[in-house]
Amino acid sequence: MDGLNVSLQSMLENSYRNFHAKGFDYICLHRSPKLTMKLYMFNGDCRKLPEVVNPHDHRYDFSTHVLAGRVANLNFAESVEGEVYNQFEYLTPLNGGEGFSTFSKEVRLQKTSETEYLRDQSYNLSASDLHTISIRNNETVLLLTQKQSVLPLTQSTKTFIKDTNQPPSLEGLYDRWHTDDLLAVIRQLSEKRICSLKLQD
Predict the structure, then answer these.
(1) pLDDT band at 45 (very low <50, low <70, confident <90, very high)
(2) What are the C-alpha distances in Å from 80 to residues 83, 84, 106, 107?
(3) Are the C-beta atoms of residues 110 and 82 closer than 8 Å to each other?
(4) CB contact at 8 A, 46 and 52
(5) Is 94 within 8 Å of 164 (Cβ atoms)?
(6) Cα–Cα distance list, 137 to 48, 59, 120, 177 (Å)
(7) How far apart are CA 138 and CA 136, in angstroms?
(8) CA 75, CA 102: separation in Å to the nearest integer?
(9) Is there a contact between 71 and 61 (Cβ–Cβ < 8 Å)?
(10) How many CB atoms lie within 10 A of CB 51?
(11) CATH of the domain at 14
(12) Domain encompassing residue 148
């Protein structure tokens, strides 16, 4: 991905470090009601996790393109033969929500597929698809292109957690980028020929 014009001010306003998990950093390249483009980067402890986040659905349909590294997408479906998960409702704090609800109900989920994607490969998911991802290389970078939300902001998405009826803690997540750190990452992405961004502002 080369030469995309991006607003530095907009990136600072809409991007986060430790997004959903420690070591999962997020740079928002473009945000509008109909189209949002994000860079997801994974380093450190995030790489060691078997799954970056718990299985979940989304507010929107989206596509993921691997710019660097290796990622596996794991899909799930409800099944009487599946493992027991606890379902939680989620309203993102980034849209003014309060995060996870208390425990909702037990659901049985079965993994239906696990597909690995390398650099320059892509996959698509619908908002209702249940999935998570596993990072298979350090310094993996993904480009996520999300379409218009199919759910109103007041309607929660779902997250599924095994072995506990307590919601995950959001402590230490959703840190803001400092300007110098963000510019340094943009330079590194260009030097490594992962992507080149043309800064505005």
Answers:
(1) low
(2) 8, 9, 12, 9
(3) yes
(4) yes
(5) no
(6) 10, 27, 15, 23
(7) 7
(8) 24
(9) no
(10) 14
(11) 2.60.120.10
(12) 2-200
The span from the CA of 11 to the CA of 26, in Å, is 10
pLDDT score for 51:
82
What DSSP element (H or E) covers 89? strand 70-91
Q: What is the pLDDT of residues 70-98, one digit of tens each?
A: 999 999 999 999 999 999 999 988 788 88
What is the 3-state secondary structure of 170-184? CCCCCEECCHHHHHH
Q: Do 71 and 141 touch, CB atoms closer than 8 A?
A: no
d(CA 147, CA 29): 14
The model's pTM: 0.91
What does the longest C-alpha to C-alpha distance in the chain come to? Answer: 54
Q: Provide the domain count of the chain.
A: 1
pLDDT tens-digit readout, 136-173: 988 899 999 999 999 988 899 999 999 888 888 888 88
Q: Of 130, 180, 135, which is closest to residue 157 (Cα–Cα)?
A: 130
* Contact predicate 132/51, CB 8 Å: yes
Report whether 76 contacts 111 (CB < 8 A). Answer: yes
What the block records as the tokens of 83 is: 């493992």
What pLDDT shows up at residue 80? 95
